[in-house]
Amino acid sequence: MIMSAELPKILVIDDEIGPRESLRILLKRDYEVLCADSVARGLELLVQYHPETAAGPPDASYLFDRFVDLLAQSCAVPS
């Protein structure tokens, strides 16, 4: 088993405690498992542990931009 400081980190986000804890137990031997019960809390943990990172791979940032555009269009109030 690798020492805790050397373990790669993995973030598990699930609003239900059962699946979240099951994954934590299954993964804890090989990973430092960070758990969150909401996306908001998951993002807080992401920034806390890796402030230099962004959610998702950088080469796919256009997908996130497109998602935000689609979301804005779907929420727009018709004139």
| Helix share, percent | 40-55%
Number of strands: 2
Q: Please identify the structural class as seen in this structure.
A: alpha+beta
Q: What is the topology, as strand order, of the major beta sheet?
A: 1-2
Outline the biggest β-sheet: 2 strands, parallel
Can you tell me the residue ranges where pLDDT is under 50 for at least 5 consecutive residues?
none
> What form results from the Cα inertia axes?
elongated
Order of helices and strands: EHEHH
Treating each run of at least 4 consecutive H or I residues as one helix, how many helices?
Answer: 3
The rounded Rg comes to 16 Å
Calculate the terminal CA-CA distance, rounded to whole Å.
Answer: 61 Å
Mean of all residue-level pLDDT scores = 81
Percent of residues in beta strands: 5-15%
Primary descriptors:
79 residues; alpha+beta; two-stranded parallel sheet
Can you tell me about this structure?
- This protein is elongated.
- The chain has helices spanning 17-27, 39-49, 61-75; strands at residues 9-13, 32-36.
- It has 79 residues and is α+β, with helices and mostly antiparallel strands.
- Helices cover 47% and strands 13% of the residues.
- It starts with 8 loop residues before the first strand and ends with a helix.
- Strand 1, helix 1 and strand 2 (32-36) form a beta-alpha-beta unit.
- The protein has a two-stranded parallel sheet with strand order 1-2.
